[in-house]
Amino acid sequence: MPSSSFWNRVGRRSLSFEMTDPADHYQRKHHSLDMGDTDERRLRGKSRSPKFFAKVTWVDTLSQLASLVPISQISIPQPVYDYNMKVENIKRPAAANIPSSGMSEEPDLETRVFGVPLPTVMSVDGGNTQLPRPVRECIGYIRHHGLDTEGLFRRSPPSTALRAAKDNYNRGQTVDLSLAGGVHVAAVLLKLFFRELPVPVFGDSVGSCSYETVRALPSAKRGNKNDETDVDVAKQMDAVRVRFMQEVVLPSISQEYRQLLCFICALLHMVERNESASRMTAYNLAVVWAPNMARTDNPMVDVSMCAAGPYASTVGGAVQTMVQSFDLVFAQEIQDILGGKQRVENVDDVAVEILNTVDLMNQSL
């Protein structure tokens, strides 16, 4: 049997070589993944080393592959899973058990990360916060590869690419976001994570910040932009709104939710600062993000509460304030994550430092 190190070097190539076009192989092999003599001779001809070929182990299904190698560490495209299910159903009775290493159509409950209660996939222990894997990986990927992307968080990737990436995360599989669809897949995965939380950030669920609370967010009517008095009033109102977010809105949700918002708003704050390239202002970001954070049983009310604006007493207005005044709104959360007030005082850019902690999470896990 080939060693694990061998499969790290060779196994993935063998799998991708045979399953590049599953549909075509399906037709040629009549509902079987078996490698016939012709295919075997064809690959033998490509290999100049008999020793190399002797180390290759043929597998008929992903179930067999899982018995040989840690399949959860291999990034397997969704079409391969879809095709494999046809083969599994042919090669064994429908009621037969399939190993819980990623071959079932429905992800294992133990590995699922989308649509589950936040405390089950996120830990908050003093200054040692651990974000859910798709959140930290997507934040890190966008931070390093997507801040210059025009229309970030606004454009939608192909649905098949998004589904494949989400399913692989739910199976506990390795996900290469560059191969999965890039920046736009990572951006939509983040929104999807928030949208599928059983308890939304804002709404009428126990644990959510209620719409009634959000409607109390202080607002002011927009006056003459050239009026210096009006500008002063606006600045004062911004400070009042920030304080309301600190003292009323954030305390109404759990520590896990507060810190999750802190991390995502650090990224959105960086996107806003780079709006000359991304074309995404704090207002634009609030427009696309608010619907993913707010949910009740009344869709019409949800839509009205997602309206954004610096003077709006809505979820959209709250999100815009969190993005624009990130370092002020999340002052306490930033201290908790970075390890105290003194540490924060020695940091030049708290948003960058928060995102640096995400990089450390991705490196250590």
TrEMBL record:
In the record, what terms sit under GO molecular function?
GTPase activator activity
GO terms under cellular component: cytoplasm
Q: Where is the Rho-GAP domain?
A: 116-330
Q: What SUPFAM superfamilies does the entry give?
A: GTPase activation domain, GAP
Which InterPro entries does the protein's record reference?
A: Rho_GTPase_activation_prot (IPR008936), RhoGAP_dom (IPR000198)
- Bias type Basic and acidic residues, positions: 22-42
What's this protein's name?
Rho-GAP domain-containing protein
Q: Which GO terms describe its biological process?
A: small GTPase-mediated signal transduction
Under the heading SMART domains, the entry gives:
RhoGAP
Which residue intervals make up region (Disordered)? 18-46
